[in-house]
Write a structure and sequence with these properties.
The complex is a heterodimer.
Chain A lengths: L3 E4 L2 E5 L4 E7 L5 E7 L5 E7 L2 E5 L2 E6 L4 E6 L8 E8 L8 E3 L3 E6 L1
Parallel strand pairs in A: 2-11
Antiparallel strand pairs in A: 1-3, 3-8, 4-5, 4-9, 6-7, 7-8, 9-10, 9-11
Chain B lengths: L3 E4 L2 E4 L5 E7 L5 E7 L6 E6 L6 E2 L6 E3 L9 E3 L8 E8 L9 E2 L3 E5 L1
Parallel strand pairs in B: 2-11
Antiparallel strand pairs in B: 1-3, 3-8, 4-5, 4-9, 5-6, 7-8, 9-10, 9-11
Classes of the chains: A mainly beta, B mainly beta.
């Protein structure tokens, strides 16, 4: 079993829909990262959070430490949101900055 | 603009040849990382460097080598000993080695062995 599991693997939505991508992890962490990988391959960091909720524009990330679960929400989705979204858990010990990555969720938003 | 630059974007190599992937950052970050990405799998750590002149093996270091002679540069050599080198390679950096640090990624290099 992978240490970081994402669901769904693939997601197709119509423009304007509310989208949720889920991430569950089995390791102790100090931070949970959400990343966006564009079709060309480059990765951009969207959020790093260790508790509660963060919001940036139409993107919202939440984390429940007790349940070891995080969600990424996209409101009013747009075709330009089409990308692979990756969840990563980091900091399993005080001296370890190793990140463990989920396999990614491929999101396609149709106009 | 500050960032991480990987080159080349696409690379073809003949079997049995070594090849070096470049990674340069001008963010003044101490820590740098190399990851490998295969279809349907999460990124896996090849090597990391906490600080200049230091580097450590990651989960899948066999068949790879690195150096960290300068703070801004962390090249990865894929040697002929790597059995399945065709993959997408990503370089990343973070301000320092430790918990709760945000990682910055390059655009990646797609290596194909022909």
């Amino acid at each position: 079993k992978n240490e970081v599991e994402q669901s769904p693997q693939n997601l197709t939505a119509q423009e304007g829909e509310f989208i949720t991508i889920n991430c569950s992890y089995s390791v102790g962490i100090s931070a949970l990262h959400w990343l966006q990988q564009h079709p060309g391959g480059g990765i951009v960091s969207l959020f790093m959070l260790s508790s509660g909720k963060k919001k940036h524009g139409r993107l919202i990330a939440t984390i429940n430490i007790q349940e070891k679960h995080s969600s990424l929400h996209i409101t009013a989705s747009h075709p330009r949101d089409s990308a692979v979204y990756i969840c990563a858990a980091s900091g399993r010990s005080n001296n370890n900055n190793d990140m463990r990555f989920g396999a990614g969720t491929r999101l396609t938003v149709k106009p | 603009d500050g960032g991480i630059t990987q080159s080349p974007k696409y690379l073809f190599r003949k079997e049995g040849q070594n090849v070096t992937l470049s990674c340069e950052q001008n963010l003044n970050h101490d820590a740098m990382y190399w990851y490998r990405q295969d279809p349907g799998q999460g990124l896996r750590l090849i090597y990391y460097s906490q600080i200049v002149n230091d580097f450590q093996k990651g989960d899948i270091a066999e068949g790879y080598s690195v150096s960290r002679e300068k703070k801004e540069s962390f090249p990865l050599t894929v040697t002929s000993a790597q059995k399945n080198p065709t993959a997408f390679y990503l370089c990343a950096s973070s301000p320092y080695w430790g918990t709760n640090t945000e990682a910055f990624f390059g655009q990646g290099t797609r290596l194909t062995v022909v």
